[in-house]
Amino acid sequence: MPPGLVTGGSGHGRRNYDQYMAPVPAHSAASAPDGPDVGAAEGAEPARHRPLRRDAERNRRRILEGAASAFAELGLDVSTDEIARRAGVGIGTFYRRFPTKDLLIDALFEDRVGKVVELAEECLRHEDPWTGLVTFLDQSTAWQVADRGLKEVVFNTAHGRSRIARDRDRIGPLVAALVNRAKQAGALRADVAGADLALIQLMLATAADVTRDVAPEAWRRFLALTLDGLRARRDGPSELPHPPLDLEQITQVMSCRRHSGR
Question: Which of 1, 38, 227, 237 is most buried, judged by most C-beta within 10 A?
């Protein structure tokens, strides 16, 4: 395994994963209460400033949990009907809590995209520039592998609103800083650019997407191979953390890809 590669099983990576998957704070998006009191009487306090009734907050939490599951498994194109089904609420209740899907995406992913920013900032403070770069690649890719929705939010500006966009726009310059720092230390090839890392992450997350049902950790092998190619110098090839796919597994991957249209 390449030096500095942090796996998701323990230590820093495990703590970051637990923080990333933490429940969304209850106050992260405002909503109107459920039931017949949606239209407030004249002079009453606006619904967005009133605390949610207990049943309304419970429904909101169920919708967020259902959406987290659906987005992670199926991506952001999943239907609102499917989210409501997983949440165990009616579609009317869903739209009272979140009138548009973008509002739901913002409520769910604002904190998670922010954690990618925090990870990049933490990796920039690492005393070893190469380890900082590798840790960011490993951990942020692991998050995207675990959550298709996060991958789509990070790489597609069509999803989310201004709150997500602000954090997403901060990721690129931070990755560029990680790259420049590793190059200045002589650890990273001089001809690598920040844009290369973005596409490498997309490549790894896509490879993980098509192999998840056959070999869920195979993407770590591809990351190790990629890191060997990114290093400015090395004494020899790194140990690969996962065995190669055999012919039967490759056939399964190709078959699933054809059937899913991915």
Answer: 227
